[in-house]
Amino acid sequence: MDIARVLVIALVVAFVLVRRFGGRPVKDQDRLWVLPAILAAVGVAEGGLVTPAHPVLSAVLLAAGIAAAAGTGLLMGRAMTLWREPDGTLWAKGNRAVLALFGLSLATRAGLALLGAAAGVPVGNGALLVTLATWILAQGLSLAARAHRIPAAV
């Protein structure tokens, strides 16, 4: 993995974190799939999802990474603070629970990468982008499901 790709992934993660922890209006819920779709498409195009030398193990690690990303993403979306302003605008903001879940997400990803490295399965850029896309989409879906339950301002 070259430095440019690492920087792009770091920038996407930083972008997501800034949006999660700085209070922001929840809008365009019908477009919440756009960034994850782009990341997943780039990840699939990058390749490296399954390593030819270890196809079964790399597929299992990829599936575990996607499942962990989906789980922590859903929990993060569930843990975010939601409120409605008097003008009816719905807002979301991260909190300590979201920060802890973010740490868990990073630790899980690192653990899977170390497990793969110990078995001779390198982490491909494509796999990182697909799991990142899953993580972002799961957060968005969880947040959108909760947003529909927040009553409108009267």
From TrEMBL:
The chain crosses the membrane at residues 6-21, 33-50, 56-76, 97-121, 127-145. Keywords: Membrane, Transmembrane, Transmembrane helix. It comes from the Bacteria. This is DUF1453 domain-containing protein. It comes from Streptomyces racemochromogenes.
